[in-house]
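User: Quick sanity check before I run a bigger batch. Here is a single chain. Can you write out its predicted 3D structure?
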Amino acid sequence: MTALPGATPGTPETEGSALDAPETPGRGPGRAGEPGEPGEPGEPGEPGADAPEAAGETEAEGEAGADTTDSAETGTAQADAAEVSEAQAELAAQRDLRERIEKRKAEKGGPVEAGAKLSGTAADLLAAVRAVESGEKPGTAFFEAPTAPRRPAPSSVPPPERPRVPEPGRGPRPADPGAVAAVLEVLVSGGAPEELATRVAGVLGEQAAEALREDPWRLLAVPGVQPDQADGFARALLGPECGPGDARRAAALVTWLLERAALQGHTALESASVRSALAARSVPEPDEALQQAIAEGAVLVFQDGAEEPEETREDAEATEESEGGPGAEAAEPVPVLLGLDRYALAEESLADGLARLVKTVQADGTDADAGRPASWEGAAAAAGSPSAAELIRAAAAHGLVVHTGGEAARAEPAALVEAARSLGLRAVATAHSENGRRRLGADAVTVQGLLTGAQGPGRDGDGTLALDLLAVLDAPQLDVETAAMLVESLPDGCRLVLSGDPGVLWSAGAGRVFADVLAARVCPQIASRTPDPGPLGELVSGIGIGELAQVDAPGKEVVIVPVRDAGEAVHRTVQLVADSVPRAIGVPASETQVITVGHGGSAGTRALNAALKQRLNPGPGRFGGFDEADRIAYTPAPGRVLAGTVVSADEEGLRLDCEGAPVVVAREQVESSVRHGWALTAHQAAGMRWPAAVVVLPGDAAQGLSRPWVYTAFGRGERHLSVVHGVDQALPRAVAEIPSQHRTTRLCPLLTGLLAPGR
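Assistant: Done. Predicted structure follows.
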């Protein structure tokens, strides 16, 4: 078999082949929007997106941003509806941090006036930033009490008693009609769109109108609002008083930059990057603006790793002397990071929780909290594979274990859970999605279901989950806030196994939890030796190590469909799903998933879904743009995608069947949280698999490709993969040369600091 130039090795597809009936290719639809879906220029991850300068370049998938179905959409869903969202549930320790921030604000005696020079603490902070970045002073110069070591995570309850773990919270209540009316009046006077009123009131609360009059740049807190729009609104309200150096504008921009960076997966940014981004936004004194935001508590400052234990410093000094004195080689400076309190608190709480689990499990084969004997060695001996036995032994002796492997390796944590149950322990396996849960078995749960109590064993009297062992599959899909909630919900002595494929795309939310725990090397790491079978397994395994290898596919497991342009790509995709794959492979259209790089463009999800609906389920879209039996993708919260179909609609909203579970989406949420789902992006599809997958790569998708994207997309098919290929050499180049997009996070140094030898 000969692969096409730049094509995925497999069976080259030609007109009239056994897989595809010949048709006359016609031009597919252009940038067709789905009925009821607003236009979204500049989506995160698409060409033209207004990505944060401080966050660096955005992949087409945005790694984290694009597949939250747009920040504006998901933000609307959260603001308008009472939806359970584990990703935004408050952590117990957050109250303490916010109280300290408010206290610090009160002590400042009011904000610095626009255009005024800094003095007092703000001036000291400015000098401290410059001193740290030049290497003259340590990072502790930023903090009000530089001599006191930072705690791993703030806590209002003294040890050893642990705070009661909060239940996952409900989303904000619908905005008060009176508040919406007041906001509408302010928006009209500032020339802003009237349809923003409900969202603004939901985000800023009952006093939203007053807040906007005092600080028009508060409008940037509403997802989807851009700085240029907020500037125009402020000019209309403030008149001559409005200027680019306004302190309120600078503070709002700092927060907006960090929120935008979070959409790309960052939990913090280097201070130099934020200063550069402020300068690009015409802030006249970026240094002073940044220090004012720090002084007012809008952002937090970190320099993780700057505080070394005494013994570490002594060892470093001894090494320095042996290598020729202090001038031998200067140590690389630790960067100064800025972050929002929600992500800072989540990472610190997560690191603290993981360290607690490591330290509260006995290594003698006895359950730490109950003292019951556990014959782990016997369970390991009865395991079905050497990798499963190794995993069981590791979990017996440690509170935290990382397990890596592909789809076939999922059987190993499942075997661990069964072994733990046979020993009388309360053990559960969780997956990222309902699709993943079904692949594990009837006793598995989803992370969302476990946290809300809808699935799993429930909670003990102290609020912690009633578990002795938890195996989290699809762990790369855990964002830092969800992971923090999950770990804080586990009792002392519980064993935690994080299992997943390190080659897939990272979480849609902020953080890179699985990769950070791997990098920290603070626990056993078990690499599965169970390969994924067949031509598809061989192809995906090669991609994982940067090789686009040729594979023999006698059963048409892998098929290449070359195309010349986006219009032909849409046409051939519809042909494959509706006719070729069902006829030649035996997989119906309802079990075939289309995957593409982004939502926009002439062959993005919108265009593909419009064409697929016209062919597979034509209709007028009488349910807010949807018809009965339409395939949909429902996003109840950022990073969570439920695949399903439309059942009906009534006065309560749109009724869906999502992986067998009935769901009702309120009318006002349909436009922002429901899309057609014949075609998904790779981030939306992560953690799920279908009997057949069709991956669409038109020519304009080349800039969005990376090794993790290709690895994730090509791995979604269980029996068959068709690649609609129009990117030529960009595909093998992406596999060989473009790794994961960098994310700035703090979890790795926090873990190494807490669990380093001697700590």
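The radius of gyration is 27 Å.

User: Great, the batch can go ahead then.
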